[in-house]
Amino acid sequence: MESVKKFLNILVMVYLLIAFLFLLRILSVSKFVALFDLAHDAAFYNRLLWVGAVLLLAELLVENMYIATLKRSLERERRQVSQLKSQYYDQQMAFKTQRYDQQMKTPAAPPVPDPVPANPATVPPSSSHYTGSAKAPEQGPIITPAPMPPTLPPQENPNLPPTDHRPFA
């Protein structure tokens, strides 16, 4: 369809070029009248008009058919996209249900592993601060609380607007 459209566009351009050359009197109408054995110049212009009307009608029909095929292909592609989306959603849901079923079948693991090592005597201290045979006390992870932001009275808070100014009137 696209090749027919391009060919018809080329024919229309050639026709318009020839018509303008005749109308601007660059090409001689009398020579073409003699060449095609026409009675007079009016018959030549009449045929030129009919050729133009037929070309215009053909151009209109081809353009409408081309637009219709484009719309049809666009709608087909939209249906394919929605079908692929639904297939993807179905696969995703099947995967999620399969994963959920697997999680339900396996025993639940403890949420937080025990931070204390199982056998502390096997880990020798890197530097000995203690002398003697006494064991060093075990120390778990050190947890420090987050610093608290300072609390200021409202009159000293720098983020508030000053209260000593008069409001705009």
Please name the defining characteristics of this protein.
169 residues, mainly alpha, 3 helices, 0% strand, elongated
Strand content: under 5%
Query: What's the SSE pattern?
Result: HHH
Taking the alpha carbons of the first and last residues, their distance comes to 72 Å
Could you report the average pLDDT, rounded to the nearest whole number?
Answer: 80
DSSP strand tally: 0
Helix content: 55-70%
Which class best fits the helix and strand makeup? mainly alpha
Label the overall shape: elongated
Gyration radius, to the nearest Å? 45 Å
Number of helical segments?
3
The largest β sheet comes out as: none
Low-confidence sequence ranges: none
Fold and architecture overview:
The chain is mainly alpha-helical. The protein has a domain at 2-105. Helix content is 56%, strand content 0%. The protein has three helices and no strands. It has helices at 2-23, 29-35, 41-105. The chain starts with a helix and ends in a 64-residue tail after the last helix. The mean pLDDT is 80.
